[in-house]
Design goal:
Elements: H1 5-23, E1 31-47, H2 59-62, E2 63-64, E3 71-77, E4 82-93, E5 98-99, E6 102-103, E7 108-120, H3 122-125, E8 131-144, E9 147-161, E10 166-177, E11 186-203, H4 205-226, H5 231-275, E12 278-279, H6 289-304, E13 309-314, H7 322-342, E14 350-354, H8 372-376, E15 380-387
Parallel strand pairs: 13-14
Antiparallel strand pairs: 1-2, 1-3, 1-11, 3-4, 4-7, 5-6, 7-8, 8-9, 9-10, 10-11, 12-15, 13-15
Helix pairs in contact: 1-4
Length: 388
């Protein structure tokens, strides 16, 4: 049985799509826990030595712990990465430990009740599976060293999950006393077993990508199957899409080239603008040594940019008659262009235009009293890129 070449291509496409769909399958690894209730039970260590932020790991003299479970928490965590948690903790300042920079003379109970809002950093970093870092802020009440105090809290920690329900929670909390005159700041570290329930799961970012890919594959398979009798039409469509793609790529390349040229032109114009203007003395069209230094820099730019064509515009202040000022501005423009040409720039790369007193840069028009400095700003030659 003879099968036409287009039909064979369609069957090949169907087989290829089915094979690829088998390779791209959703698995258990593609789902993640998105919201849940959390209970933790564990131990805590308190550093209230007075230099707890300077000597973080002074276990021997600064850390206080009890040899049994001393911290419990319950919280609710949401799909947007935020979590609310209430925490109760007990500890005991041991005799001989450093408490607020002095040796503790006796064992003293420590009680804490804290509330915090935390944020799952995986929402920023991307899903890491077993590793779940977070930060948080909160407030609470602590009775420590026979002193009760409200505290502002800052938390950093992470959880490691062994399953959808069980894991470990590690965190450290800095507690700043609201009453700074009578109570000290301290750090509380915690390690606990974490159990989460009423777990709501969803697809991870990678799983969503797979699902979208599978849906696209299903649509593509259906489209191919429905188009067996329209192979030529599909072929023409593919050719048209390819041409559109090539046209879009060509247009994008041309746009990028045009934008690059415009950016380069703007950069050169900025470079020229940074040189400043040539400023003339009253009733003069002669260039000073300072003016020639500026024009030498312009010549250097034009030699670097061989396709650059510059237009010189010349101006005067408002003093004198309009006819005289027009003539004077023409002389200024001509002398400016002549100097540049004399330095080796081709005549066809320079043009000029004189405006007399018609384009003042300030309000120093006829009849307006201005200082000599204000008038001087109008006696100028400027440089404009005509072609690049």
């Amino acid at each position: 049985m003879n099968i036409s070449k287009p039909l064979m291509m369609v069957f090949a496409l169907i087989f290829s799509a089915l094979t690829y769909a088998q390779d791209v399958e959703l698995t258990k690894k593609d789902s993640i826990v998105q919201s849940y209730w959390l209970v933790t039970l564990g131990a805590n260590a308190v550093d209230d030595s007075g230099d707890e932020f300077g000597e973080l790991f002074d276990f021997k003299e600064g850390w206080n712990m009890v040899p049994y479970p001393s911290r419990v928490s319950v919280g609710r965590y949401f799909k947007n990465g935020l979590g609310l948690e209430a925490i109760g903790s007990y500890n005991r300042y041991k005799e001989g430990k450093i408490i607020d920079n002095v040796v503790n003379p006796e064992d003293i109970d420590y009680w804490g009740l804290d509330f915090r809002v935390s944020y799952d950093l995986n929402m920023i970093l991307g899903e890491t599976g077993f590793f779940d870092p977070y930060i948080g802020i909160g407030a609470g009440y602590t009775d420590a060293n026979n002193q009760g105090r409200g505290t502002y809290n800052a938390i950093i920690g992470f959880r490691t999950w062994f399953s959808d329900h069980w894991g470990l929670d590690f965190n450290s909390t800095g507690k700043w006393a609201m009453d700074t005159e009578n109570a000290s700041n301290h750090i509380q570290h915690a390690l606990g077993v974490a159990y989460r329930f009423e777990v709501e799961k969803g697809l991870s970012r990678k799983g969503e990508e797979k699902l979208a890919m599978l849906e696209e594959l299903e649509k593509e398979q259906q489209r191919i199957q429905d188009s067996i009798t329209e192979v030529e039409k599909a072929k023409k469509l593919a050719e048209r899409l390819q041409k559109e793609k090539e046209a879009a790529e060509l247009a994008a390349a041309e746009k990028a080239k045009r934008e690059a040229e415009e950016a380069r032109r703007a950069a050169i114009q900025t470079k020229i603008n940074d040189l400043g203007n040539v400023y003339f003395k009253l009733n003069s069209s002669y260039l000073t040594s300072k003016d020639k230094e500026l024009l030498n820099q312009l010549v250097a730019i034009m030699k670097d940019e061989s396709n650059l064509i510059i237009k010189v515009t010349a101006h005067t202040d408002s003093r004198g008659t309009k006819k005289y000022n027009q003539w004077l501005s023409e002389r200024r423009a001509e002398r400016t262009v002549e100097y540049v040409i004399a330095k080796g720039i081709s005549e066809n790369r320079m043009s000029h235009e004189a405006f007399g007193e018609t384009q003042l840069v300030n309000d120093c028009g006829d009849g307006v009293r201005c200082t000599e400095e204000q008038h001087a700003r109008n006696r100028r030659s400027e440089f404009i890129i005509e072609q690049f």
